[in-house]
Amino acid sequence: MSLAPHQLELLSPARTAEIGREAVLHGADAVYIGGPAFGARTNAENSVSDIAGLVEFAHRYGSRIMVTLNTILHDSELDAAQKLVQAYYDAGVDALIVQDMALLELDLPPIQLHASTQCDIRTVEKAKFLSQAGFSQIVLARELTLQQIAAMRAAVAPEIALEFFIHGALCVAFSGNCYISHAHSGRSANRGSCSQDCRLPYTLEDNQGRVVAFDKHLLSMKDNDQSANLRALVDAGIRSFKIEGRYKDMSYVKNITAHYRTLLDEILEERPELASASHGKCSFSFTPEPDKTFNRSATDYFVTGRKEDIGAFDAPTHVGLPLGTVTRLGPDWFEIDADEALANGDGLTWMNKRTVCGVQADVVKQVGAVWRVTPNQKIAELAGLKVGTRISRNRDHAWEQALLKKSADRRITVDMLFSETAQGFLLQLNDESGVRVAVEVAHEKTPAQNADSAGDALRANLCKLGTTIFAARDVGIVWSQPLFVPASLANQMRRDAIAQLEAARLKALPRWTRTPAVEPPVPYPEKSLSYLANVYNAAARRFYTKHGVELIAAAYESHEEDGEVSVMVTKHCLRFSFNLCPKQAKGVQGVQGQVKAEPMTLVNGDERMTLKFDCKPCEMHVVSKMKKHIFNSPPPSVVEIPLTFHKQRPDAAR
């Protein structure tokens, strides 16, 4: 089974199991987390036992736990990956997020498989194929428009859920199609070790060597924020709404999860035909504010069409929210005419030319109508700080301190019915998901001395659910007359019923099983695959051969591409960003026909990469060559053994 077509799932990241628990408490219907190996974030790893504990916690609320196993795998790693999958299944993990098609060829337990965004799902044909190949949920490319998403929804079977990133950092490349890191440093993004060359500053030159942009972060994107597009995404067919951030801290996950939980709950309130994918209502002790956690300012990317302002060219850092203006400089302090109160420990930023400068406010105090800030550096060392400088705050210390404490409560509503029986009393519980339990006790029945308050006293005892995950919604009492029910009896019946309800809820929780592949195997949309398909082992090759692919090149990481090739394919176009796109020139008098998509060059130190432009699909290719010492080194793997690839199917007779 998978998500039902009427269910909406908020999917949050977790660097650790502890963060995962907080994601659940702040409203996540599902959490994705990395295990001890083969996840595409090498510094966000967790033990299987820690994940098992998170599973147990999340399942109390009906929330799912997904584990990332989304690197490409070397042949030497397949056995270890297979054993790890079995361990995840035994731990109760609900689904794996995977990139390597080899996993569909291995003998795995019936754990649900989700196609990672690393699978580069940006065509209707690819989406339909993966939905028929054994995946229960597919993570669509971030670059898609609403119309493209709707077309995929129409082509894919309704029982296959579509997942889409709605918040967080954006990879400039089509996911899975970036090899700059491996080419220059040997660190493969497809194996979880990206060196983030896209966040470096570059100079852009045209085909005559003229500088178009100098020392800017030209491959750095703003952060994704689909807050305004959620209803449109629901209408287009998205059912799992994913927050990026397995490297992010606790405060980010709490804040962003609570933000989208609030927005999705508004939609669910408006549309009773839809439902949350898990159980319980959340309350927060803070007001979610996405702009207060790390971000590079916001873009909705391509969802509502191509835009010119998707890049964070000036600074790939968190500038923060505007705070005020410097009014005075002192020997060891400066004063700000601020719109909000400041606190010790606040992080303050300002722009000096093209650079973001920052300082921590060690001590702040209000002096009349302004705030005096004593920073943790000497005033003379703060480049660009002067009267009139506009100050932003990228760390609101008081707000962050509030998030370090208990900041959310999540309760599952339950209806209670207390009644008398021939031998005593019966307490029935019915939770919001329809799970029912009953506790019956034999007890003498004595009329209450104070008939007017007996019902209220009993209700008060039955509603004492503060240490549980439940909250009473309706408490009914059916008796022939007001009876005396000892508080100790009511409390014990409530405790026993709640324990039974928790056990019954877990028993009723479905085991998410894998969607079977269509038989006979459906053909892959293409007959040949280049290194961009990331085929890194013989099992993946078998998969594609079974689905009709005749020519299969080895993955870039196998070190068979020794010349200049596209080391990044991206929807981001620098010609477009600097108004040099031939399509932009169309219709402009005296310009049309003069602007051509000629190659350009990106320069960072000694690194020079050619930019080529494919105008028909509106894509940019970054072309470079693998460094010699990397090319001559063994392909990355846990156990280094030689790999043999065949671009044509080997003769079975040999």
Automatic annotation (TrEMBL):
Peptidase U32 collagenase domain span: 392-506
SUPFAM superfamilies, alphabetized: FMN-linked oxidoreductases
Entries under Pfam families matching the protein: DUF3656 (PF12392), Peptidase_U32 (PF01136)
Taxonomy, superkingdom: Bacteria
Protein name per Swiss-Prot or TrEMBL: 23S rRNA 5-hydroxycytidine C2501 synthase
Species of provenance: Viridibacterium curvum
Species lineage: Bacteria, Pseudomonadati, Pseudomonadota, Betaproteobacteria, Rhodocyclales
